[in-house]
Amino acid sequence: MVSAGDEYATALMLSKQLHIACKSAFEMASYRKSSKTFQRVLPYFTDNSAGIQLAVIAAVGNLDALKSAVNSYGSDLLWDVSYTFGSSLAAAAGGGHDDVVQYLLDYFVTNHRMYPMEQYEAAFRGAIATTLGQGNTDMSVRLLHVYHQYFPAVPKLLLSSWIAMAAKHPDDRVSVRLLELRTEPGLRECLGKFKLVCKTNSKPVFDAFLRLRSMNLNQGYLEKKVAFRCPLSEAVGVGHFSPVRSLLYHGAHADGVPTCRPCDLPLWLAVQRNSLEIVAVLLSYGADIESIVQLWIDSDDQFKEERGAIMMHLNMVSQQRGAQWDAAMGGPQQS
After folding, report:
1. In whole angstroms, what is the distance from residue 299 CA to residue 283 CA?
2. At what angle do helices 119-134 and 7-21 cross, to 10 degrees?
3. pLDDT tens-digit readout, 219-275
4. CA atoms lying within 13 Å on the CB side of residue 77
5. What is d(CA 32, CA 45) in angstroms, rounded to the nearest whole number?
6. Which of 97, 178, 198, 315, CA to CA, is 20 to 30 A from 303?
7. Tell me, what DSSP letter sits at residue 103?
């Protein structure tokens, strides 16, 4: 992992990052192994050895070794937060390793919808704090841009701490990015307005709201902190066709966000409301029928009977998609 002749430089770099990332680094270095303090913090350094190894490789900045380790241990461990170096993203960002950071960012952008993980947000927050503390403004701007694009909001106190850290290494680009971030109190106010706008069922009013760009249409919002699912699910829940169509037209994903529970999927909410019009427009934008099959199977007979027209439409679209798939693959397989 370390080139010959670079051992000392690598060890020095790791020690500096360890000192920044790990509050117990001094204790580990200065206390005897028999001391209670040493024994108290030791398990944090020995548990999850694979996750720690990935973080150390990221801290060194060896992209080839990181890819090899991912093949061995699995990509999920990339987003674990180790006690020593934090996440792999934080370790790579702290070391200023652009290629490793880009690899991790590309992985996130490609996989966040298919494989949603709670660890993503913690990894980004740790990486942002690390780069702000070190004054690596270029890396901070890069991480803040992705955070703003893919995560709904930042706790107000955390944002305040980031602003205080950034003030030690002034850079207008960092300040602008930090001011763009949504806070949870501000988000609640914004979501409240969104619900009211949906209820007006006015296309001009709704389009004017979207032009403010105060929300990302493909973000999810934690229900415990903000009583909201995602913009499309909320619009479907209100029940008017015009806001749903506008959201889809402006880029909202027809299946909501990766963190949607099956019962919160826009398509299922439309089925529950018995709105064939909304079901049809969701399907026209590619909503996944298979995602609600089990919910439909588990429903009682009266529920299904009342939605007979929707069931016929779902079957028709499913058959059309099957025929299109067969055509694209060169025709149905012959037995």
Report:
1. 21
2. 110
3. 765 545 444 568 899 899 999 999 999 999 999 999 987 767 788 899 999 999 999
4. 22
5. 16
6. 198
7. H
